[in-house]
């Protein structure tokens, strides 16, 4: 994976000690499982006022702190419907650091689709060496449960993924949703970032290489 750097220089020409590492996380699953709501809950701390099917790619980012280090996570949520995805698949899977697979606990079909999503990742060189987690969403709708925890856990174990069950809609699960993405961030902390950017402060910016992700961001951002 190619990386790029944005290093900040002061008037003396020295580099400051603080830089923010940036990681790209893609969120994958069938249409309607709540991918956009999960990323919105994590980044905004609330459930979106309006929810519509994603057409194209939804992009959000958030700066978090782990062990005193600031890390920026970029969350890419693609349309789950095939007719909206064909033109953007190559961009979506480029420079990925981690994958979040999402299914709807009240929709068994979305769970049965997971092997196909995993295979699509494999076809784009995202194997088990890339950190992955499995999320069962819409746990607030327990009356319509179609995918039990035991079945989901067995599937997650067979693919070496941790399992989380949550509800993006339930405000009581806000901390749980945050824990999901923080788990991914902890896994990424030891990895090479996509790029380094300056922490806000004084000094000029010296770009050493333009990141491919900058092109992707301007092309795909739908928020």
Automatic annotation (TrEMBL):
GO CC terms: Golgi apparatus
Keyword terms of this UniProt record: GTP-binding, Hydrolase, Lipoprotein, Membrane, Methylation, Nucleotide-binding, Prenylation
Main subcellular location of this protein, as a coarse class: membrane
Pfam families per record: Ras
UniProt cross-references to InterPro entries, sorted A to Z: P-loop_NTPase, Rab33A/B, Small_GTP-bd, Small_GTPase
Similarity remark: Belongs to the small GTPase superfamily. Rab family.
Protein name: small monomeric GTPase
